[in-house]
Amino acid sequence: MTCPLPDSWQQWLGDEFSSPYMQSLRDFLATEKAARKVIYPHSSDWFRAFELTPLDRVKVVILGQDPYHGPDQAHGLCFSVRPGVRVPPSLSNIYKELASDLGCRPVDHGNLEAWARQGVLLLNTSLTVEQGNAGSHRGKGWETFTDRAIITVSEHAAPSVFLLWGSPARQKKSLIDTSRHLVLESPHPSPLSAHRGFFGNHHFSRANAFLVEHGRDPIDWQLPEAPVSHPTQG
User: Fold this and answer.
1) In whole angstroms, what is the distance from residue 127 CA to residue 220 CA?
2) What is the DSSP string of 32-58?
3) Can you tell me whether residue 114 is helix, strand or coil?
4) Which residues form the active site (predicted)?
5) C-beta separation of 71 from 36 below 8 A
6) Residues designated as active site
């Protein structure tokens, strides 16, 4: 498989695709497909986060874990779902914090491409999952690749903000140069943990304040009423 990344990322991550761990990951995914298992998202969306957010435009990194494992949900951006899909509970809580922090109006869709196009890298640590089986592709090699992506942002992007929500995301802090970038940590926005410190964390306003302080344009966190169109892949 040739490197599927845009040029801005390929310079730093292209060699990963010829590494032994990536070959093992390819073999695993091929075996899963041969066993007629359904994998989300569609392969054309595995690297969607990198396509929508070039390295030289990264301003904020939000880390998720697995893609959504239900039909028609995942499309390569953490916490985001395709147009027409019900807003998931964790994203609903993100909207609530946005409303409290910045007065953003909650929208009735869960498509976050408008953020990605502004420089918000919406990165899951594992880029695929089996239908209905959360965590099924963890430890197969994706984490090695996405760790390299985090390190690449840390080393080569302009001063940016990393939003680390929940224990798995917070474990990535050691990969980030905190002398250059702002790292904000809190519990995960899941209904199981949001009330333990996600609500009231003011991460969105704090991220924008950091960007402005470093001469960068802030993120417009207000999503459009109509989601950005991205055709569903078969």
Assistant:
1) 26
2) HHHTT--EES-GGGTTHHHHHS-GGG-
3) helix
4) 66
5) no
6) 66
For 52, the token pair is 């929508």
Q: Tell me how far apart the alpha carbons of residues 172 and 1 are, in angstroms, rounded to a whole number.
A: 28
Q: Are 121 and 58 in contact (CB under 8 A)?
A: yes
202 Ramachandran zone, left/alpha/beta (phi>0; psi -120 to 50): left
Q: How far apart are the C-alpha atoms of 198 and 203, rounded to whole Å?
A: 9
Dump pLDDT digits (tens) for 50-99. 999 999 999 999 999 999 999 999 999 999 999 899 999 999 999 999 99
Burial track 85-94 (b if 16+ CB lie within 10 A, e otherwise): bebbebbebb
Q: Which residues, in sequence order, are CB contacts of 234 under 8 Å at separation 6+?
A: 42
Is residue 216 within 8 A of residue 195, CB to CB? The reply is no
- Rounded CA-CA distance 110/141 in Å is 28
60 closest CA partner among 213, 210, 225: 210
- Residue 44, token pair as written in the block: 């054309």
The CA distance from 105 to 102, in Å, is: 9
Give the three-class secondary structure for 164.
Answer: strand
Q: For residues 158 and 150, what is the distance between their CA atoms, to the nearest angstrom?
A: 13
Give pLDDT tens digits for 129-166: 999 999 999 999 999 999 999 999 999 999 999 999 99
